[in-house]
Amino acid sequence: MFPKVVQVIPMENHFVYVYFEDGKIVCYDMTKMLEKEVFRPLKDIHVFLDTCTVLNDTLAWDIDGNRDNTTCLDIDPDTLYELPAVEEKIA
User: Fold this and answer.
1) Whole-model pTM above 0.70?
2) Distance from the CA of 91 to the CA of which of 8, 11, 37, 44 falls in 20 to 30 A?
3) How many CB atoms lie within 10 A of CB 69?
4) Record: fold of 5-81
């Protein structure tokens, strides 16, 4: 099975709630990844929140705003799916 992300909700603490097609919900902590050169633009919380989306059936950031799945920053959906399921804390 290939895990398919259907919705993402970024939070102001650089965490993202990730919703999978099968109903699983995980919370991804992006804070450690922000130190990697490629992800540094996401340190700006406005960029992090405003460009967070679903591309390539996974969590992604469309930094250029052109919906080009070859230039987005994304996280492997298998990596996300391996995280423990969480209860949604958004309400």
Assistant:
1) yes
2) 44
3) 13
4) NE0471 N-terminal domain-like (3.30.2020)
